[in-house]
Design goal:
The protein is 56% helix and 11% strand. It has seven helices and five strands. It has helices at residues 10-22, 39-55, 68-75, 82-100, 118-132, 145-155, 166-186; strands spanning 2-6, 26-31, 60-62, 105-108, 135-136. A five-stranded parallel beta sheet has the order 3-2-1-4-5, with helices on both faces. The radius of gyration is 17 Å and the shape is globular. Residues 177-187 have low confidence and may be disordered.
Length: 187
């Protein structure tokens, strides 16, 4: 089976690749992530993935560019619903590429994250698969998340601190002061 694996970052890809290979599926990596911001974050994740793909001898296709303005245009003004757009733009790109280049199926490393809206992600991938006439290879990779993170640390891979968009980074910083404040109040 020829499977295109959309990859959001190297750490999330580790166990997805291993899991697929254990099923005798050799994935071809697909980088398309116009949601990742700022540019330094986008570049760091992309460079880490390029190196990791070489290390595990996986073919990697790089598509798209840094897309701050396009991303903002498409999530504005409903920033709280940004994940739906984020899933759909990447599902569309992966399904379209898979169909145009003779892949039997596609899947995504986003399915490993316990922080994603798994059901919305699955539904979005299935719609794109139907639209482009290619199979969505569903796998719930979430049980492998912690193991993948540990392996990424052991390999010294770049480890991001937030999902990818500027709003998820904002959420990360907003939560920290609240936690510190709650901890201080508990004393």
């Amino acid at each position: 089976m020829k499977t295109l694996l959309h990859i959001c970052c190297a750490p999330c890809s580790i166990m997805c690749i291993e899991s697929l290979r254990s099923e005798n599926i050799e994935p071809v990596g697909f980088w398309f992530n116009p949601n990742i911001h700022p540019y330094t974050e986008y570049r760091s994740r992309k460079e880490a993935l390029i190196q990791h793909a070489k290390d595990v001898e996986m073919e990697l296709i790089l598509e798209g560019d840094y897309g701050l303005r396009e991303f903002i245009r498409n999530v504005s003004p409903d920033f709280d619903s940004r994940c739906g757009y984020c899933y759909s733009v990447r599902a569309e790109a992966a399904a379209s590429y898979a169909a145009e280049h003779g892949f039997d199926s596609f899947t995504s490393t986003l399915l490993i994250s316990p922080y994603q809206n798994h059901e919305l992600l699955r539904e979005t991938m299935e719609k794109s698969a139907e639209k482009y006439g290619v199979e969505f290879l569903y796998r719930d990779f979430r049980p492998y998340f912690r193991e993948g993170q540990e392996k990424a640390r052991e390999k010294g891979l770049y480890m991001q601190k937030y999902c990818g968009c500027v709003f998820s980074e904002e959420d990360r910083y907003r939560k920290k002061p609240k936690k510190k404040k709650e901890a201080a109040q508990a004393l």
